Amino acid sequence: MTPERIGSDKLVRLMEQLTPLDHAVLSRLTQHRYLQTEQITRFEFSDRPTHLAGLRAAHRTLRKLRLHGLVAMMERTIGGATRGSTAAVWTLTNTGIRSMALRSGELDQPRRRLAEPTLIFLRHELAVAELHLALFEAASSGSAVLRELQLEPWCWRRYLGPLGAMTTLKPDMAVEIETVNFDSRYFFEVDRATEPPHRIVAKCLQYQEYYRSGEEGRRGGVLPLVVWVVPNDDRREQLSRHLTTDNGINQRLYRVLTIEDIPALVGEDDEVGMLPENASLAGGQS
Predict the structure, then answer these.
(1) Which of the pair, 127 or 143, is modelled with greater confidence?
(2) What is the extent of the structural domain holding 73?
(3) How confident is the model at residue 116 (pLDDT cuts 50, 70, 90)?
């Protein structure tokens, strides 16, 4: 295995030996800090004749990158519908992080330290990747186009709060989707049912505070719909009930969906994904 710390010249030569597909996998692991083998297959190897062929190609590529010391397989695996080697979780090594920084010309950026993530954090990161895949696959199978997709921290928004202090709104994802007739914009929040509903309500109220600041209007003139993606129907009913009964919540700004609802959302060809900048942000039914 390549040593964890190698010189820049050697690292440049190593990167030059890699194929475009190798670079694509490294870029995807830069975008999403953690990915399962199955998710990497769906992102980068979906053009193979069968899913099994794509999975085998993904395994070969990951083994190669691992031998070069660019990626590592986490000790922890995540169960669920994905089992065995397809459930293995991959991340960039320090060498992999340096190689991508060298390639992008951002060597002066702070280095990310490798650490074993908590199970709650890891499940959330993989759920965000699964949402990205759902959007990617829904757009690929229809007439929609993902014009822009930002993950954290690039999707975060800084704004001046009501008390005059700078505050940060932290969505999990910001997406612009182009359909035949409209460009729709969304903020996505991935909920794993680990937070009490009152915290979800508080986050929704922060979105309304952010929209009232006018910062998002200056960015695009429209207000993205905030979509909460929840793990099951029971959680959807629970959050919907709390958002509906809270008088401070503007119902027009939010939607609660499961991952199975994403294809229908992507296929909607109307203005559901945005509100005019001057839309009323008062709470209650509107």
Answers:
(1) 127
(2) 8-117
(3) confident
Give domain status of residue 106, yes or no.
yes
Per the DSSP assignment, residues forming a β-bridge with 231 are: none
The dihedral through the CA atoms of 132, 134, 140, 143 has a sign that is negative
Q: Supply the CATH number for residue 147's domain.
A: 3.40.1350
Check the CA dihedral 159-255-124-175 and report its sign: negative
Classify residue 44: in a domain, yes or no.
yes
Q: Provide the pLDDT confidence category of residue 107 given band limits of 50, 70 and 90.
A: low
User: Would you state the pLDDT for residue 268?
Assistant: 78
Q: What's the angle, vertex CA 106, arms to CA 103 and CA 110, rounded to 5?
A: 130
Tokens 């699964």 — which residue? 130
Is 92 in a helix, a strand, or coil?
strand
**How many domains in the chain?**
2
Residues in the chain: 286
The domain boundary, picked from 82, 117, 152, lies at 117
Q: Do 72 and 93 contact (CB within 8 A), yes or no?
A: yes
β-bridge partners, 160: 166
| Claim to verify: residue 92 and residue 147 sit in the same structural domain | no
In this prediction, what percent of the chain has a pLDDT beyond 70? Answer: 85
Q: Is position 2 within any domain?
A: no
Q: Count of H helices and E strands in the chain?
A: 10, 11
Are 220 and 250 in contact, with CB atoms under 8 Å apart?
no
Query: Given 61, 88, 117, which residue is the final one in a domain?
Result: 117
- The Cα-based distances of 238 to 2, 105, 172, 200, 227 in angstroms read 50, 46, 21, 11, 15
pLDDT interval class at 183 (50, 70, 90): confident
Q: Does 146 share its domain with 69?
A: no
